[in-house]
Structures are given as structure tokens and as C-alpha cells.
Amino acid sequence: MKPLVAIVGRPNVGKSTLFNRLVKRRLALVEDVPGVTRDRHYADAEWGDRAFTLIDTGGFVPGEKDSLLKQVREQAQLAVEECDAILFVTDGRAGLTAADQAVAELLRKSGKPVVVAANKLDSESVQVQALSGEFFRMGLGDVLPLSAEHALGVNGLVEALLDKL
Ligand code: GDP
Ligand code: MG
Predict the structure, then answer these.
(1) Probe ligand 1: pick from 12, 29, 57, 72, max atoms within 8 Å of CB?
(2) Rounded CA gap, 115 and 38, in Å?
């Protein structure tokens, strides 16, 4: 069976954009409005001679009784239980939030292989400058600069992921 990889992170960081790019099709709905309800999407991704199955997590319900933070944690927990490795996406322009920290803690405790991306860093120069120490303090190792929308840093991210599978 192919290894299973989940993309996790809080709403609106660019998970679905990354998912579509990696599966090379537009299967997941990219939403400008944070917190719109979506299903989980599964698709096969191929990279050179390697293949894996990718899950786009989401399904956040705005205004639900459960807080956003709790829903984000639940998605991450599900991913940890189900998957061989995790792609954890953060917003490199917004910086770390409480929801990011909660996910990071859960992932650290899980011991599962994790690759962390700081997305929305849309140019080479921004990618070089932008990564501040706060991301590294999550204790999940390297944080790779990414622009899912402009396809910058995607190869490096997938290489790092494949190294851990
Ligand atoms: P998700 O909620 O984490 O799945 O995020 P989406 O993939 O739906 O993206 C949320 C918003 O961020 C959309 O407006 C995307 O166009 C935008 N976005 C995603 N990736 C990037 C990126 O690399 N750079 C910029 N500037 N915007 C992005
Ligand atoms: Mg999404």
C-alpha cells in the first residue's frame, strides 16, 4: 500500500492549494473565506518514481459549538492516527497563532514524521528573509518556506517529505 500523508493546519493557510498542486489537479476547493465546511479529499500523488496518497483535511464548521481551535486539533489528531507522515502548513506572513501552537504540540507528542511549511512566501527574496525564529521554536525541526500558489519551494518540501517516508 502507498504511504498516507495528511496536510494539516488551521483554516486559510493554503492546505487545499498545496493539495491541488501536489496531486496536479484541482480537486479541493480553495476558499477565500476561512472556515467554510469542506469534506476530506483523498488523491494519489506521484513524484518521480515515488507515489503516496494525500489527504486534504478541513471540514471546519464556523459557528459550531466546538471552537475552531478544537476542530483544528481534532483534524490533526485524526491525521496522526491515520497517516504515515504529516505535512503541517502554517502562514509564513501571519506568523504563529494559538491554533498553530496547539497543532505543533500534538504533532510533537505523536512522534510521527512531520514536515513543516511556512506558506504564502511568494518570492525568493521573501523566502530568504521571512522565516523568523518563532517557527523554529515549535520544536518540529526545519520550517520550509513555501508558496503553494506560485509553486515556489514545492520540490524541496516534497523531497523532505519523501526522505521521511
Ligand atoms: P486552506 O483553508 O488551508 O485549505 O486554504 P486554501 O488553500 O483554501 O487557501 C486560502 C487562501 O489563501 C486562498 O485565497 C488562496 O488563494 C490563498 N493562498 C494559498 N496559497 C497561497 C500562497 O502561496 N500565497 C498566497 N499569497 N496566497 C495563497
Ligand atoms: Mg482547504
Answers:
(1) 12
(2) 23
Which residue carries 490533526 as its cell?
Answer: 76
Mean pLDDT of the chain: 87
Q: How far is the CA of 13 from the centre of ligand 1 (A)?
A: 6
Query: So what's the pLDDT on residue 69?
Result: 81
pTM metric for this prediction: 0.92
Residue located nearest, by CA, to atom 26 of ligand 1: 120
User: Which ligand 1 atom is nearest residue 56's CA?
Assistant: 4
In the chain, the amino acid numbered 137 is R
Q: List the grid coordinates of 1.
A: 500500500
CATH superfamily for 4-164 is P-loop containing nucleotide triphosphate hydrolases (3.40.50.300)
Q: Which ligand is located closest to the Cα atom of residue 20?
A: 1
pLDDT digit string, tens, across residues 49-75? 999 999 998 766 666 666 778 888 888
Location of C-alpha cell 479529499: 41
- From the number of C-beta atoms within 10 Å of its C-beta (0-12, 13-18, 19+), residue 86 rates as buried
